[in-house]
Amino acid sequence: MLISSTAAWPFADKSIDFAISNQVPEHVRDHDAFFSELSRVLKPEGVSFHLFPLKHYFWEGHLRMPLVHRFQSFELLRWWIALMSRLHIGIYKEHRRDYGVSIAQFSESHADYMVRMTNYLSKSELLRLCKRQGFRSGFKFTKNFYFARLRGLFGLAPRYLYPIRPAPSVTPSGCGSANAYHRSRFFWRPATPTGGDRWSGIGAAASPAGA
């Protein structure tokens, strides 16, 4: 199901126990609407986890170039993408091989992509957004994620694995049934929330979020 950044989510108020997103909020145009809808659909004891990059990180993962998400000027952004491409940094080589594009064409189209399709938040902006919606949010589990990634880089086996199993079929708001399989390289277990608290994990993290 595709939902625009500003459309209401097709779920009833306080109907969701658990929400998770992977590499989503950096593509959301209206973050206020995103977190407002998340607040609306989560049950009072609901939990959410969100894995995504923030503005302060060095390496932009879509173009695989440093600092490309930090430019405000379109002309400077296009110039930087062209420079990195000439230095063989980033994904231009793959695009030239697959699509036959020039550096000028690649720089123009991917500067447009960064402007129109990405919307990075700083840590302080993100925390203010969550506070506005009443979430108690933080980055408690960020280190778990990076430790797991480091283990993978060194060829070490994951410390925790969920068994691979089919998820129950779901049909929210007329969607077709969907089966999913889940396997995780790392594991987190939040304490049981009490007193009607909601939890929200952000930026590869997890923490309690208050109603």
Write a structural description.
This protein has 211 residues and is of the alpha/beta class. The chain folds into 2 domains: 16-56 and 121-209, no CATH class; 59-117, no CATH class. The protein has 6 helices and 7 strands; from the N terminus they run βαβββααααβαββ. It has helices at 31-41, 74-86, 92-99, 103-117, 123-132, 142-153; strands at residues 16-22, 42-51, 59-60, 65-66, 136-138, 198-201, 208-209. Strands 1, 2, 5, 6 and 7 form a 5-stranded mixed β-sheet that branches. It has a two-stranded antiparallel sheet with strand order 3-4. Helix 6 links the parallel strand 5 and strand 6 (198-201). It is globular and about 50 Å long. The two termini are 28 Å apart. Mean pLDDT is 80; it is low at 170-211.
Characterize this entry briefly.
33% of the residues lie in helices and 14% in strands.
Give the topology.
Layout: E1 16-22, H1 31-41, E2 42-51, E3 59-60, E4 65-66, H2 74-86, H3 92-99, H4 103-117, H5 123-132, E5 136-138, H6 142-153, E6 198-201, E7 208-209
Parallel strand pairs: 1-2, 2-6, 5-6
Antiparallel strand pairs: 3-4, 6-7
Helix pairs in contact: 2-4
